[in-house]
Amino acid sequence: MNYSKEAKDLEFAYKVRRALNESAESLPAPTLDRLAQARKMAMARKKQEAPVAVLAFKGVLAGNSGFSFQGPGSWMGKLGIALPLLVLVAGLIGIYEYEQQQNINELADIDTAVLVDELPPAAYVDTGFTAYLNKTEE
After folding, report:
1. pLDDT: is 35 or 104 the higher one?
2. What is the pTM assigned to this prediction?
3. Do the beta carbons of residue 31 and residue 25 sit within 8 Å?
């Protein structure tokens, strides 16, 4: 509903209320007495307000469907949390090991290419190259 429609509805409600109040003032006294008695009878017959039972599931507002495996402390519920975490940790360890192996293979390829390649005689005289060959791997 947009604002203008709401404003028009509210204005209409005020006009109806004003018209009813004006016509109520012109009613004869016996009619007003009968209306007052009818209101009292209706209020006496009104049912007492009873508390309303509402079914609410734990965690529904947090995006959970409220379904759990046999209660909050069950082993299936705990497994439902622990298993995905274990899979995640195992996956991260696997990715780390794979990346380490790739790094080792790349370094081995570079070392092999340097050692197999024929070097010019000037490389053996270069002190920087000798220092590079003598450098221990960190």
Report:
1. 104
2. 0.36
3. no
